[in-house]
Amino acid sequence: MLLRRMADFQPELVEAAYTELGASNAEYRKAHNRWQSMLRSRRAPEGLDLYRAVLGPPDVERAQRWGDVSLTASSWQLPGLWPQLRFETLIGVGGAVLHGWLVRSPEHPAPALPEPEHLAPWSCVVGDVQARFPDAQQADPQIPSQWVALVTDDLGREWKLVFVHGLLQVVQMN
Description:
Strand content: 25-35%
Structural class: alpha+beta
Helix content: 25-40%
Number of domains: 3
Shape: globular
Number of strands: 8
CATH class of the largest domain: Alpha Beta
Largest sheet: 4 strands, antiparallel
Radius of gyration: 17 Å
Mean pLDDT: 92
CATH topology of the largest domain: Beta-lactamase Inhibitory Protein, Chain:B, domain 1
């Protein structure tokens, strides 16, 4: 389910990824269609229970404050493509999933990131960029699976970084 939205930006990387995982294009699309069917099914589990049905029990669950609200962050290791990342969901009242994306695993330090124009697709997650560029501003992508950060480099140029499910896809001069 993560790869399908990434294919809108990086089709070659996605093809290499599902091939590395031992899947054909048909199997990759079938997995995506199954996920979409589960999301829309009246009989499928909802919220966190859906993720548990697909990914198993979370590897880590921890309390997280977001302003005045207490949330639960649940995360899973994803074998294969990104061993240094985890898929994390933020859970609200009643098990509702408020957000889900890839984050850096606490055991793996963030990579040393170069200036924005030298960032490569799939090289970092939102948290890595926020740590490297603390003045980065969030911009509304108006698409739930995406995140946009506006970063100003040392020369005063503004860059638009587009993430899908928390993983960098595209860097554009803004």
